[in-house]
Every structure is written in structure tokens, then in C-alpha cells.
Write a structure and sequence with these properties.
132 residues; alpha+beta; HIT family, subunit A; 5-stranded antiparallel β-sheet; 2 helices; 20% helix
Length: 132
């Protein structure tokens, strides 16, 4: 269950057939609503809302799996770059209250101007290179 609610956590009961890969403490799946082809989620097996609740061992397992998933995507999809991100808390855009890392492959030409990357969550601060 999600903390503070009776709603079952969708990431706590994933069908193992969805797992692209996993380790002892984390798993990787493809996002059901991908930003780009190959958009993956790396999810701890233990329920937690925030990265800051994870033990050092869990953090290492998440990063190890993120790196392994990156290698798989490089082989299978040949992206030109990646965005890696965590929405930590509702104010940061978290909608599934179970920690997950977004690994988003980026492809040359998938955006007219990718400079600033994740800074576009605050459009008025995104073009930092044009200031002053």
C-alpha cells in the first residue's frame, strides 16, 4: 500500500514478466508513457517514496541497474544521449509515490533545442546561457 492511503502501490506489485532486468534490490521496466523510445524506469523493490529513504546499498543497486539499462539501450537503440531524473515529491512532479528513476534516451533531432535539458521544468530559468 502507498503510505497514508489504502490505494495499492502500482510499483510494489509489478508482473515480473515486465522486468527488462533486475538485481537483488531494484528492477527496470519500460515506461508505459514513454517520452522517447526506450524510456525506462528503475525502481527499488522495497517500497519507498523518496531517494532519501534508500539505504546506501539500495542507492548503489539503483545506480548499477541504471548503468546496466543504459548499456542495453545503447546496444538496442543507439541513442545520442540520456536524461536521467527523479521526481521527488508532489511539488517536483512525482505522481507515483514509489521512488523511480527515469532513464530517457535522447536522439539527435528529437528536440529543436535540447540545451538546458531538465532545466525546462522552469522555463524562465532554462536559457541560462543567454543571461548577462
Amino acid at each position: 500500500m502507498s503510505e497514508g492511503t489504502s490505494t495499492p502501490c502500482r510499483f510494489c506489485h509489478l508482473d515480473p514478466s515486465w522486468f527488462v532486468m533486475d538485481n537483488n534490490l531494484a528492477l527496470a521496466i519500460y515506461d508505459n508513457f514513454p517520452v522517447t523510445p526506450g524510456h525506462a524506469l528503475i525502481i527499488p523493490k522495497r517500497h519507498m517514496v523518496s531517494l532519501f529513504e534508500a539505504t546506501r546499498e539500495e542507492q548503489a543497486a539503483l545506480l548499477d541497474l541504471t548503468a546496466a539499462m543504459r548499456l542495453l539501450l545503447l546496444q538496442e537503440r543507439s541513442p545520442d544521449g540520456f536524461n536521467v531524473g527523479i521526481n521527488d515529491g508532489a511539488a517536483a512532479g512525482q505522481t507515483v509515490m514509489h521512488l523511480h528513476i527515469h532513464l530517457i534516451p535522447r536522439y539527435a533531432g528529437d528536440s529543436s533545442d535540447p540545451r538546458g535539458g531538465v532545466r525546462w521544468i522552469m522555463p524562465e530559468k532554462a536559457r541560462y546561457w543567454k543571461k548577462g
